[in-house]
Write the structure tokens for this entry.
Amino acid sequence: MRLELKGLTKKFGSFTADDDIDLVVEPGQIHAVLGENGAGKSTLMNMLYGILTPTSGEILIDGEPVSFSGPGDAIAAGIGMVHQHFKLVGPFSVADNVQLGREHTQRLGVLSAKAARKAVLDVSEEYGLKLDPDAICEDLPVGVQQRVEIVKALSGPKTELLILDEPTAVLTPAEITELLQIMRNLADAGTSILFISHKLKEVQAVADTVTVIRRGKVVAELEPTASEAEMASAMVGRAVTLQVDKTPAEPGEARLEVTGLTVVSDAGVKVLNGLDLTVHSGEIVGLAGVEGNGQTELARSILGLVKPDSGRIAIDGEDVHGASPAARIAAGLGYIPEDRGRDGVVAEFSVAENIVLNQYRDAPFAKRGAVNAGAVRKRAADSIAEFDIRTQSPEEPVSALSGGNAQKVIIAREFSRPRRFLVAAQPTRGVDVGASQFIHSRLVAERDTGTAVLLISSELDEIYALADRIAVIYNGQIVGEVAPDTPREVIGRLMVGGGIHDGAAAASPEEPGAPEPPAAEEAPEPPAADETSNDEDANGGDR
Amino acid sequence: MSTTDTQAPAADQPEAAEEKPNFMRLFGRYLTEANSVMVTIYSLLLAFLIGAILLIVSDEYVRSTYTYFFARPQDALTASWYLVRDSYIALFEGAILNLNMLDRFAAGNAEFGDLLRPLSETLTYATPLIFTGLAVGLAFRAGLFNIGAQGQMIFGMLGALIIGFGLSLPAVIHLPLAIIAGAIAGAAFGAVPGLLKATTGAHEVISSIMLNNIAALFLVWAIGTDFLHSETKTDLITKPVDETAVMPKLLSGLSESLRVNWALPLGILAAVFTWWLLSRSTFGFRIRAVGFNEHASATAGMRIGSTYTTTMAVAGGLAGLAGAALSLGVGSAGLTTNTALEYGFDGITVALLGRANPGGIVAAALLFGALKAGALSAQPDVPVDISTLLQAIIVLFIAAPALVKAILHLRTPRGGLVTLEAKGW
Amino acid sequence: MAVKPFKMALAGFSAVGLAALAACGEAPSENGSGDNADASFLACMVTDSGGVDDKSFNESSWAGMEAAAEENSDIKVELKESSSETDYDPNLQATVDDGCNFIVGVGGLMTENVNAVATENPDIAFATVDGFSEVENVYSIQFDTAQSAFLAGYVAASQTKTGTVATWGGIQIPPVTIFMDGFAEGIKKHNEDKGTDVQLLGWDVEAQTGTFVNTFEDAAAGKSTSDTFITQGADILFPVAGPAGIGALTAASENEDVTAIWVDTDGYESTEYGAELITSAEKGLETALKDSVLAAYDAANGGEAITGSYVGTLANGGVSLAPFHDFDAAVSDETKAELDALTQQIIDGTLVVESAASPKAQ
């Protein structure tokens, strides 16, 4: 199938999400669309898949203009889509999920399990995508769930074009390698692929051609041989240096001491397994690791939202066991949560209210049980100026702000009160480059005032740029503490459970990326990829 | 409850930035827009329109005129017109001002107090609704759906009653003490679903529904006990409260038949308190934060469980005050299983109509009180169920603004349609 | 309560459909409507919290009011329903404001409210049903239903095969418990006279405690209560619960050997379960109300004022045992004779049926 977009434009009110996009996907080609968060990639794909109607412009398939009023039309036209967030019915089997919406039926509408299984096996065989049709989806590792999505997309009546929307965001490095291979195979078999990503290395590895969009416009058409720097600067519009100016750290006394921390999840899995970690004043410790290896639980345990099953957390030498989050915050714990929308801000609250969200009961913001609106407003005005928060007014709800500015609200909140220890989890996730640089320099400045900083990030580049010491977490344990000049290959190996000196370690049979697999269940598809070849992708867990 | 902004389709966005807006144009634009004020107004109008249709079809005589509509249409049309007009006038007379009584007053055959009777009845029926509406609305703001106002009110009734007849005290102490007892009893019962949610995760809707049943049956049992049961009557009715604990009537100087009592100003006070609590206090800050996003609130160090429990206790206290208002007011001669009516459940609709806003809740309670008083007085010319029916239709439209928008072809306002959403579900 | 608007709406919508079908009909000749619009005498009734369609005393009372209007075209009747006792005052006041000449409050709990309004309005005639008032312009209408229930209990004791019968009530209020007292006394009498040992489930006269479903509306609750009694061996059910009592009749219809006795009205006529009903303990509300409205009309037109009280008894026919209908053959002539004798003794006063809920101040 040859897909062509001509002048495709989508406006939301006065906001133009996509502006005059031209793009051609040749048959059997992997066409990468590269762009930062908010560049207009998802809007583009949603128009292609019939979820959104273009404001102007047209979509041509094999030269014929088409118009989709819903995904059904797109599927009928031969377009399949794998969403970033899977659309699977967890308790259903693989076969049932694949046939969802186009069920195989016998007479009188009775479901035919046999036909459904056969359909799955046919597709798996044709494209070499191994799947057990009877497995229950929610029990499968994330990578396999994604394979189900791909098979589902390919099972359309005549799917010839596959849209993959940031497919690697949730995968482990090994799974990413495998996915890229699958994509290659599909393309060789004649399927066109539109691959949405903001990961340069993956694009380089698999794409035949690259279209870069920024602020809704096509800004560059590149060959995959283009350098990372070239792609990155096209994406962000200027040359990016992830280098942060900083002086060598001068670590002081231990501010955070974690010893033997163990947390068992509700499902009975040890998500933290005797973890030890120390952070000193005046240093940034970067916690590297593929997401889902216990980072979330570690951060939440330090804040006090998760009760450890055993082990000790001491802040400033004092065991905080039993102290409430409020008490720890009051004692000088700063906390930037990894999931900003969920844990960081109350979206419906104003900028001002969010800035005092964890101090609203302290003087001067509270007076005899009432909120002192004047003091709150003043703090908000100060913070907006200091942290360059782009907002109409302090009264504007945070939901109206961009991701970067919402993150600055959190930074402002945490940096505007006395603090001795800071947990910064994914501090620049989904934040534009300018804001990222700002946040990075604030973190370094924070360190220089003597605060102990624990930086949790799935972006290895961020860790390299900021950390004075790197700790690698794997399966709920710190598997290595290394200097910041340690080569990527070494850290990459540690992140997937290999040893520091273990040159060609195969990936562990366990699936670190899978969220809490049932204890008794062995992951069915141990990825057998050669780790050394994809160390570069070890930072693939971000989104 | 939260207000959710549905993304407005781009096509409906007004692109009128270039036009020079004058006041009339802006006003006209406002009137034809599905903003929350206009949706409320149109919901009321539509409800009365549908009510009119139902009045016509449920009246046997008027219906009979439609059987020969094509032979003599004027019969059906005039009969319908008179029926609807007279019915709504009757509702108005029962709720606000009795025109008949006005004539008699003008002729010197009635006292001024008689003129105020419909208003007094409206306020009397509105008073418990103010409290229960606040009880539901406050919980809404914390993201809790307090279905349990009925049960909390019943316990408030009993608490106030026990102090009301059980102690012998001078009125200055007795009445406030009985009111406080009602609030405490309601608060204690209201805290239960909050506590269950905080400690076990039990959904407050389920637990408060069940607690309503428990309260209703407990009431039946309690009335029958020797401690509470009337000493003079064999009916299922309690002892009356002492004179010293009875809510004094507000306008007894004008006429003894004016039942509105001091529970009304107490209700207004409760609304002001709730407003302050929600929008000015640190506790209200916490309630709203937790209601919008409990995860971010927990991360900011707020204790979610205790917020739920405390909010439900305060809500229960407000519902308990509704019970106290009944026990010590219109029900002071003794409580039966019917005294509580369904004020607690009606509080849900009042809170919805008032958009969980104390001011709106008072207005909604007054409207519902007027409907109830009007319908009661308009019997038998108007079916007494008309008030419940109108209430139901109003809330239906309020809950589905898209319906109002579609029926009247209103434009989508800038921020999108405001749909009420009880987060508790 | 909550279902009523729905019913109204449903009736309305179906009526629209019918009207639409019939809209081509011919126009009638002009004449006034037939509901005594120009009547000089307005008789008004305020229901208690049960509402007018309670299939019990509100409904029967209203039927009596309407019967009076039917008989005398110079009488117009008006109805105001209450949903709780807090509605009594405004409803009574509204009837005064409407200019009613005769105002009936139904239910003993309304008596005090009636008294208050009556004292304020000494020129208007009032009546209280199932309550006793000493106010001069309030006429008390009461029924000694213990007498008819006594006969019903006697019949039940004579008819039971299992030796166990059961009664249960709606809510524990005097108009209910008086039936249960009488029923229990009738069984006791049969046991004493005939040497039987019939057991009664669901009511203890001494303790004045028993089984109540706490509703007059929920027939499903009545059914499950009845089923429980049936499994305990009861073969005759005596539900005193208005519409909720229908549950006992469905239970009886599902169990071949189980029958029932109805209250207030002759259930053979008023329910669909005539085949299950041995008899009914009737309470002549309809007649009493009709008579009192007519008497009030006469009083207003120069006749003697109605005052004091009326107590319906077996003697004056205010209460009675309904015919056996389908069970006429099943009830032995011996039993019938005994019933006649007992009736005579009660009328004579040689046999007194006691109940804690008996009408006061006879």
The radius of gyration of chain B is 24 Å.
